[in-house]
TrEMBL record:
Name of this protein: Amino acid permease
Location in the cell: Cell membrane
Membrane topology, as annotated: Multi-pass membrane protein
PANTHER family the UniProt entry points to: AMINO ACID TRANSPORTER-RELATED, ARGININE_AGMATINE ANTIPORTER
Phylogenetic placement of the source organism: Bacteria, Bacillati, Bacillota, Clostridia, Eubacteriales
Length: 469
């Protein structure tokens, strides 16, 4: 039994609720609109057909919205840092909470690594050596990653302000893209099909799962609001409002961008681009100037997304350490800035190792591998959150019957079905790596059981009870 008494100094040194509704929306939008938006026209054209990819996108948008409702409902009742682990520990026990936390911890730095790699790919528009020299690209990726870590160590206000600035900045390339590309819009391009996708008479609808995997990555990030609940002002109101508003805004942006991109280039040409936003504008204007301008704004946008994602990932790790699901060192705060410095440094080290391990594949290969594995890990956490919504917030009201259960839990059950289909869409390789990573976490859980035999089961549950009831 852990009988440690918290000193007045430790009580004073706690996470500060400094983020208002604007900061919450900026985090949701900024963390969601990252590299996915600026690569999705090419990714979808290469993996699917116009009709199938639009269907996949609509399914992903709707699925993520109903998943977001589960996050919003749970965070409204339990506004604590840690997000998913707090819900899962209360609903499903410490072992399930550890596995979800293990997956979510992995998804955080891997997502940031993917974002940084994507930004350096656009930086290659100005410095082509980054596209052919893997060592140079590796060095730039690591420098950018650790600059993000330093920003977040300096405090929530600094990171939140940076997120707001970069969220505003990322609106600029979207507006430029829409205004310029719309002048070359041709409805005939919407009916074109990439020949590689319909070989041997295959139905274009067979490509929906592949399109779903790509679009799912584009929506990753809305859950980071719930993970940072411990630093949000008036969390009971701002978390739910911020989550819903941010995901609705992102959905509108994605639909508009994809529709216009499909109307400017035929599918085969679009599938052959490497920096689609920049190349589409070059195609429309016949000049490199807009391509360069677009690349600058996109790099700032992706970088801001990476910063916000690290902020949320560190808050999540802090919650894991605070609950003693991870070693308590993860909950250590900076003496001056009151930020989870140890969690931030560990996230930085792990993300750096992930980039180093994949740098020989080149930017494109590393980016694809990282985002697929990250998406797979995040989906597992989403499934656990949806199940927690069912177990904690749905009152069956007496005798439980299949019909009553389905009626009371319709939305989270629908979200569950969507997430299962999304896992299928990520492909067998991502599922395999996800399973291997799960097994890797089992010895860590066993260590924590020996180290804190009571705390890993009991820690945090009283707080969760208080917030639920």
């Amino acid at each position: 039994m852990d009988n440690h008494v918290i000193s007045p100094a430790e009580k004073k040194q706690s996470l500060q609720r400094q983020m208002g509704l604007l900061g919450v929306i900026a985090m949701g939008v900024g963390n969601t609109i990252g590299s996915g938006l600026f690569f999705i026209p090419q990714n979808l054209a290469a993996a699917s057909t116009p009709l199938a990819s639009l269907i996949a996108f609509v399914v992903s948008a709707f699925g993520c919205i109903i998943v977001a409702f589960s996050f919003a409902n749970l965070s409204q009742k339990m506004p604590l840092s840690g997000g998913t682990i707090v819900y899962v520990k209360k609903a499903e026990g410490s072992f399930a909470a550890f596995l979800v936390g293990w997956y979510n911890w992995f998804a955080g730095p891997s997502s940031i690594a993917g974002l940084v790699v994507g930004m350096v790919a656009y930086l290659g528009v100005f410095f082509p050596v980054l596209l052919v020299n893997n060592v140079a690209a590796l060095i730039v990726c690591l420098i950018l990653y650790w600059f993000i870590v330093l920003i977040n160590i300096r405090g929530v206000k600094s990171a939140s302000a940076f997120n707001i600035i970069t969220t505003v900045v990322k609106v600029i390339p979207i507006i430029l893209f829409v205004l310029i590309a719309a002048t070359k819009f041709d409805f005939a391009n919407l009916t074109t099909v990439n020949p590689a996708m319909v070989q041997d008479g295959a139905s274009q609808f067979a490509t929906i799962p592949a399109g779903l995997a790509v679009t799912m990555w584009c929506f990753m990030g809305f859950d980071t609001i719930a993970q940072s609940a411990g630093v949000v002002k008036d969390p009971e109101k701002n978390i739910k409002r911020g989550t819903i508003l941010s995901i609705l805004f992102v959905t509108i942006v994605y639909v508009l961008v994809i529709f216009i991109a499909y109307g400017v280039m035929d599918q085969e040409m679009l599938a052959g681009t490497s920096a689609p936003f920049s190349e589409i504008l070059q195609y429309c204007t016949g000049s490199n100037v807009w391509s360069y301008v677009m690349s600058i704004f996109i790099m700032f946008s992706i970088y801001g997304c990476a910063s916000g994602t690290l902020l949320a990932a560190a808050q999540f790790s802090y919650g894991m350490g605070e609950q003693k699901i991870f070693p308590p060192i993860f909950a250590k705060l900076h003496p001056k800035y009151n930020t989870p410095i140890t969690a931030l440094i560990i996230e930085g080290i792990f993300g750096s190792l992930l980039i180093i391990a994949n740098y020989t594949k080149g930017l494109a290969g590393a980016y694809l591998f990282i985002i697929l594995v990250s998406t797979m890990s995040t989906i597992i956490c989403f499934i656990a959150t949806v199940l927690s919504d069912i177990m904690l917030l749905r009152d069956m009201g007496g005798k439980v019957t299949p019909w009553r259960y389905i009626k009371k839990c319709a939305l989270p059950l629908l979200a569950f079905v969507y997430l299962l289909y999304a896992i299928y869409g990520t492909g067998y390789e991502s599922v395999m790596w996800g399973f291997l990573f799960l097994l890797l976490g089992l010895p860590v859980y066993a260590y924590m059981r020996y180290k804190y035999p009571q705390s890993i089961v009991k820690s945090g549950e009283a707080a969760a009870d208080e917030d639920v009831h």
